[in-house]
UniProtKB/TrEMBL annotation:
DUF218 domain ranges (all copies): 45-146
UniProt xrefs under PANTHER family: DUF218 DOMAIN-CONTAINING PROTEIN, INNER MEMBRANE PROTEIN, PROBABLE PERMEASE
Top-rank taxon, per record: Bacteria
Coiled-coil spans in chain: none
Organism ancestry: Bacteria, Bacillati, Actinomycetota, Actinomycetes, Kitasatosporales
Name under which the protein is recorded: YdcF family protein
Length: 222
């Protein structure tokens, strides 16, 4: 991996890898009632959701997501719509997929998916959230806050950090996203959006260093 292409140093790369590792929950997967594929710029979420469906882990799959500035051009009909089409192409029966096409943030992903499931007379006791690799922890913390009576498991495409960056094709964007998601893990509990997650000191130090070095395009501002 050529980290110099976008001015990323070896130290910054190691800091990003530390944050990447922290974001992943590494849950041991088992059969659940429902899976929810969280919309994003990463079509790998749909592909991995399809793979997990074919492995028999769940009978029903919800794709959730409208559009964001990073996805409107890539998925003009909305994230969930494109994810659904991709999953069907990969062998998931259309009747196994429910569609939630309006969510614009993770909280809405959870809340609106619950409404779609309720409308289909599905009240799950266990839910598998399928997300980008670096969004596992934030999606877990959000779902535990908004859906506390349901068991939450997390999964993502099993890629190493370098391979994931190559698959996205934009090193700076991925590092910005890692930093932005960690900021939300840290800040959202005090806003009532998520449960608290312990952040190890070395992860927090890596986060602060990357912010000082300008990996800030995905940060929220107060």
């Amino acid at each position: 991996m050529s980290n110099d292409q976008q001015g990323i140093t070896g130290d910054q790369w190691r800091q990003a890898k530390l944050i990447w590792d922290y974001h992943q929950m590494r849950h041991e997967l088992r059969p659940v009632n429902v899976a929810i594929g969280l919309g994003s710029h990463d079509l790998g979420v749909a592909a991995h959701s399809a793979e997990l469906y074919r492995s028999g882990l769940f009978p029903t799959l919800v794709f959730t997501g409208g559009n964001s500035p990073t996805t409107a051009e890539v998925f003009p009909r909305g994230e969930a719509v494109h994810f659904r089409e991709h999953a069907i192409d990969l062998g998931v029966p259309a009747e196994a997929i429910l569609l939630e096409p309006n969510a614009t943030n993770t909280g809405q992903n959870i809340t609106l998916s619950r409404e779609v499931l309720a409308a289909a007379d599905i009240t799950p006791e266990s839910v598998l959230l399928v997300s980008k690799p670096y969004m596992e922890r934030r999606s877990f913390a959000t779902a535990r806050k908004l859906w506390p009576d349901v068991e939450i498991l997390c999964a993502s495409e099993p890629l190493e950090f370098d391979d994931y960056v190559k698959s996205i094709g934009d090193e700076k964007l991925v590092l910005d996203m890692l930093v932005g998601d960690l900021q939300r893990v840290i800040e959202y509990p005090r806003l009532g959006f998520a449960i608290e997650q312990e952040v190890p000191e070395d992860v927090h130090a890596a986060y602060e260093s990357l912010i000082r070095n300008g990996f800030t395009s995905r940060l929220i501002t107060s």
